[in-house]
């Protein structure tokens, strides 16, 4: 049986999202085998290397990576994208992985779309739809269950993990909102992503250059390479190309494979014990986010 292009690229989209989840496991592995390594150092290395490679690729495929710097306003927006979009979504996420685990960090980051809803309602006066309100409440309940296991008098995760996890979710929102104007101007996503990643890496290096005394262990560098290749280069290409053949809403549904992969990997390889409330909270957050991507009236009309 011959698969359609849409089916094939849906599978590749699933692979891309799963790779993002797998890369978080490699990050946690680095933090475990090399205590001197930290989120700041790993983010710097990943951003500098990945950003440079993506820009080189952009140049080869005709993306004109230097063109955006000829417009002063677009250049300012690009710097803002790197500092306030890409930097928090990457650095805060790795801090949450370092202090907690890949599962919690990835699921917490998954609530990012709800900060977008909050921003649009507060600053652009766009009233949220009923499904968005319901999904936001469900997601909040999910975060509450993850953080407290249903008990009001104590946290099941450390305040630091909760803080950095939610901050990375805010980063998801800013990382989505800031580049919209530049995308509408016709700049390629490869160029914008490459520059924003590189800018965030340069900024972190300037603010606090991290040079940990790492042991001569090849596992560390193989894992760093995995974070860069599996966590950035390959999935970005798969995601970008898949959107040529499948709808954005379809791809957003595939996002669920990222926290699922990170959670299963944390349980299987790192011995993370997921209690019933952890599973319930994770499922609620994932389902709430997916609900934003499904045109429910059309969905039920089609299935009934």
Automatic annotation (TrEMBL):
Cellular compartment(s): Cell membrane
Highest taxon, organism lineage: Bacteria
Membrane topology note: Multi-pass membrane protein
UniProt keyword terms in alphabetical order: Cell membrane, Membrane, Transmembrane, Transmembrane helix
A Pfam family assignment: EamA
GO cellular component, one term: plasma membrane
Boundaries of every EamA domain copy: 8-147, 162-293
TM regions (residue ranges): 7-27, 47-66, 78-96, 102-121, 133-150, 156-178, 190-208, 220-239, 251-273, 279-300
Protein family per UniProt: Belongs to the EamA transporter family.
Name of the molecule in the record: DMT family transporter
């Amino acid at each position: 049986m011959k698969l359609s292009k849409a089916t094939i690229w849906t599978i590749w989209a699933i692979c891309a999202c799963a790779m993002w989840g797998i890369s978080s496991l490699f990050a946690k592995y680095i933090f475990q085998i090399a205590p001197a390594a930290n989120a700041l150092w790993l983010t710097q290395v990943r951003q500098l290397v990945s950003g440079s490679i993506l820009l080189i690729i952009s140049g080869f495929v005709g993306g004109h990576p230097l063109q955006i710097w000829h417009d002063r306003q677009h250049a300012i927006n690009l710097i803002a994208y790197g500092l306030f979009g890409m930097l928090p979504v990457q650095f805060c996420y790795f801090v949450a992985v370092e202090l907690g685990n890949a599962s919690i960090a990835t699921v917490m980051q998954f609530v990012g779309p709800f900060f977008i809803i909050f921003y649009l309602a507060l600053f652009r006066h766009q009233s949220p739809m009923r499904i968005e309100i319901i999904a936001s409440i469900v997601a909040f309940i999910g975060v509450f269950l993850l953080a407290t296991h249903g008990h009001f008098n104590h946290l099941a995760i450390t305040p630091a993990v909760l803080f950095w996890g939610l901050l990375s979710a805010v980063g998801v929102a800013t990382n989505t909102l800031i580049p919209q104007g530049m995308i509408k101007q016709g700049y390629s996503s490869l160029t914008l992503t490459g520059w924003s990643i590189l800018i965030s890496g340069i900024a972190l290096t300037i603010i606090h250059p991290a040079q940990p005394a790492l042991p001569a262990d090849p596992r560390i560098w193989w894992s760093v390479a995995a974070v860069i290749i599996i966590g950035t280069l390959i999935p970005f290409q798969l995601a970008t190309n898949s959107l040529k053949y499948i709808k954005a809403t379809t791809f957003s549904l595939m996002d669920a494979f990222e926290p699922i992969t990170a959670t299963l990997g944390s349980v299987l390889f790192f011995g993370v014990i997921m209690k019933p409330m952890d599973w319930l909270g994770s499922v609620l957050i994932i389902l709430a986010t997916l609900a934003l991507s499904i045109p429910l009236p059309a969905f039920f009309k089609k299935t009934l």
